[in-house]
Amino acid sequence: MRRGPSWFNIASVGLGLAFLYLPIVLLVAYSFNAGRLVTVWSGFSTRWYAALIEDEEMRDAAWITLRVGLISASAATVLGTLAAVGLVRGGLFRGRLLFAGMIYAPLVMPEVIMGLSLLLLFVALGQARGFWTLTAAHTTFTLCYVAVVVQARLVDFDRSLEEAAQDLGCPPWRTFLTVTLPNIAPAVAAGWMLAFTLSLDDLVVASFTSGPGATTLPMRIYSQVRLGVSPEINAVCTLLIGAVALGVALWGLVGRARTRAPV
Amino acid sequence: MGHRSWLAAIPPYAWLLVFFLFPFVLVAKLSVSHTVLAIPPYAPTLDLSRGAAGVRDFIGGLSGDTYRRLGQDHLYLAAYLSSLKVAAISTALLLLVGYPMAYGMARASPRSRTLLLMAVILPFWTSFLIRVYAWIAILKPEGLLNLVLSWLHFGPVEILNTPTAVYIGVVYSYLPFMVLPLYAALEKLDPTLLEAAADLGATPWRAFWRVTFPLSRPGVAAGSLLCFIPIVGEFVIPDLLGGPQSLMIGRTIWTEFFANRDWPSASAVAIVLLATLTLPILAYQHQQARALEGRR
Asked: A42-52, pLDDT tens digit by residue?
């Protein structure tokens, strides 16, 4: 569109972004409030962060969340990338329709249903709920996001490069490792990051599939939020937002790779 | 990679069969079971170690009671209807807020476009729970909104624990999901089409409705489905912002399951919800597959 943006365009984007960012900015600002009230500013202080470091339950929860995120995101990246290769390069194999359905459905499936069904699976298997059931559950729904992100990249990727390698006698798995994988690497990395953040953020599926010994950070935050707003929660949230912002910024600096939104 | 690339699909296929499809069979099975005071809290359980007798007992024990109860209890029906209503209204609001935003982004210079895109994606990476929590501090009676209103000499408003708070929370949380597909569709729009329309005497308003909007329809469809389906089953937002009387189906499942420990009812509610959402989910898959084919 050649004509520049009108005042209406600028206003709608500006207001939209303000709407998206204002609550987050306020939340971060009040995590540095000296007082206990979240609405009355009574001076700058980092006391809530100090309180956080003392809070052993929060520390444990953070450690569990991190471990679940790392393991499930890695597993989901492997499975999701394989799924994308199968979908894009596999032709019309038997059962492809069901497979594609199982990849897309979790993207929009209400989390409550995902959580409930996975819990019933673990009960039926006689598997006590805890760290590993939670990790498996997170792997299941995040692998679909990875598959969609990688798939978008594979569709755009020039297939003749792979064919050239094969014509020159390269076996399929080596073609994949030396030609395909380096080309789709940015999407695979983006998929991993997406899977990791989704795992970090998840409350509903975790509440169904986790056990007594494996309370995650969102579960801990949720149980405290139900009791009311407190500056300590603002502090945890600020740290989480900071971690995500840092990750995304690093990503932008290092890669400048074209990450695709998962839609 | 040759014709055997489909082999790559085997591990994820097997994983999804076990962890995604099979659990739904279990939900369906449990929805026709009885509630009992035991662990697990339902009967009958399938005992394969007893062979054919076990299977016979199991099938004999199934019943449609939970569904009958679901039909009779108006609370369930009310929860379904209110979930669908909230999702429909929210999706309309999201289109209303998201469309001008995506349109404005698509008209920005290529450099600022990349920045704006990042700015919309960034909140999408931060936790849902945190974003909803942020609104509690703003909307509560002694919260920031009322603070600002009292400066402006307006009376206090009560928003937290009302449907309005749920709508604010939903629109806020799902806005990136709506803006991104819309932007993807609008960005591809050929500007010469609008010039042609103008040359032929169309007013900008008419050109928008006759050219821009029809061409952005795939984005509208993708964004709407991507928002509508999860909103119907939303739990966190109505639970934290809607107050105790907010009635939504995702919350009903949660309460039946965790508070009432009525697993069969929770499963039956989930099955009916899934049946309601089958059509939109299939539409979404169809839409995604078509979008991907188009790029091939």
From this structure: 788 888 888 88
- Using 50 as the pLDDT threshold, list the residues of chain B that sit under it: 1
- Residue of B116, B144, B180 with shortest CB distance to A263: B180
pLDDT score at B61: 67
Domains (range + CATH), chain A: 55-254 (1.10.3720.10)
Tens of pLDDT along A6-34? Answer: 888 899 999 999 999 999 998 888 888 88
CB of A79 within 8 A of CB of A141?
A: no
Residue A212 has φ and ψ, to the nearest 5°, of -55, -40
CA–CA min distance A257, chain B (Å): 12
The whole-number pLDDT of residue B166 equals 94
Best of B25, B93, B129 to substitute, by most chain A Cβ atoms within 10 angstroms, is: B129
Residue of A nearest to B103 (CA): A9
Q: Distance between CA B178 and CA A222 in Å, rounded?
A: 26
Of residues A117, A124, A208, nearest to B24 (C-beta)? A117
In chain B, the domains with their CATH numbers are 23-63 (no CATH), 66-295 (1.10.3720.10)
String of DSSP letters for chain A: --SPPPHHHHHHHHHHHHHHHHHHHHHHHHTTBSSS-SSS---B--HHHHHHHH-HHHHHHHHHHHHHHHHHHHHHHHHHHHHHHHHHHS-S-TTHHHHHHHHHHHHHS-HHHHHHHHHHHHHHTTPPPSHHHHHHHHHHHHHHHHHHHHHHHHHHS-HHHHHHHHHTT--HHHHIIIIIHHHHHHHHHHHHHHHHHHHHH--HHHHHH--TT---HHHHHHHHHTT---HHHHHHHHHHHHHHHHHHHHHHHHT--------
Tell me the per-residue pLDDT of B142-201, one tens digit each, with 9 for 90 and over.
788 888 888 888 878 888 888 999 999 999 999 999 999 999 999 888 888 888 888 898
Tokens of A58: 């929060």
Q: Measured between CB atoms, which of A19, A108, A152 is closest to B281?
A: A108
What is the pLDDT, as a whole number, of residue A256? 56
CB contact under 8 A, B136 and A221: no
Residue A1 confidence (pLDDT) above 50: no
Given an 8 Å threshold on Cβ–Cβ distance, is A201 in contact with B129?
A: yes
Interface probe for A, chosen from B127, B171, B282 (most Cβ of A below 10 Å), is B127
The whole-angstrom distance between A180's CA and the closest CA on chain B is 9
A210–chain B nearest CA distance, Å = 13
Inform me whether the pLDDT recorded for A263 exceeds 80.
no
Instruction: Write the ipTM.
Output: 0.86
Contacts of B6 in chain A (CB under 8 A): 86, 89-91, 93, 96
When pLDDT is averaged across residues A81-87 and rounded to a whole number, the result is 93
Mark yes or no for CB contact B1/A166 under 8 Å: yes
Look at residue A250 in the predicted model and tell me its pLDDT: 76
